[in-house]
């Protein structure tokens, strides 16, 4: 089955679809994605190291889960799907009140804001996405899929915010920028 991504304009209106395995190139078209940050009750962020076999930004540390919704799939459903596929997580707890838009299904995920970015990795492959920043909570260790994730760890949020400034090249560029956007909400 061919996995499709949703091509969008600058206002995030769908203008088409394309096969995911062909879309990430040096000339990646703008497409819809999401970026999820999972925290535990100790205010630690679950960060993951992207598998070295990933097409874009292989081997870098990043936020918990990133992905693309399929056509006709909501962002929140896509995030739940990727939490399960990448980390084996199927349940999260209620989100913090007042954080942003949420729904009442499990996993409970909140959309905090949207973010637009374009970055090229060291091989010249481009990520070019409009990406809601999502937050959820769980006190559970993941069971990572080795095709997606090489390593993972819980990191105290304040320590993480310092580390992304000190060790910039260790982290994905979208993770660094999204964390700064998210910081006032956590």
Report on the structure:
With 186 residues, this protein is α+β, with helices and mostly antiparallel strands. It has one domain (4-185): Nucleoside Triphosphate Pyrophosphohydrolase (Alpha-Beta Complex). The protein is 20% helix and 34% strand. Strand 8 and strand 9 form a beta hairpin. The radius of gyration is 15 Å and the shape is globular.
Helix and strand layout, with pairings?
Layout: E1 4-8, E2 14-19, H1 20-23, E3 31-32, E4 34-39, E5 44-50, E6 61-62, E7 65-67, H2 75-87, E8 101-102, E9 110-120, E10 126-137, E11 149-156, H3 157-166, H4 173-182
Parallel strand pairs: 3-10, 4-10
Antiparallel strand pairs: 1-2, 4-7, 5-6, 5-11, 8-9, 9-10
**Strand and helix order:** EEHEEEEEHEEEEHH
Major beta sheet summary: 6 strands, mixed
Radius of gyration, rounded? 15 Å
Low-confidence stretches: 97-106
Number of helices: 4
Number of strands: 11
Helix content estimate: 10-25%
Q: Give the mean pLDDT.
A: 90
Portion of residues in beta strands equals: 25-35%
Q: Which CATH architecture would you pick?
A: Alpha-Beta Complex
Structural class: alpha+beta
CATH topology: Nucleoside Triphosphate Pyrophosphohydrolase
- Based on Cα principal axes, name the global outline: globular
Q: What is the count of structural domains?
A: 1
CATH-assigned homologous superfamily: Nucleoside Triphosphate Pyrophosphohydrolase
CATH class: Alpha Beta
N-to-C span: 38 Å
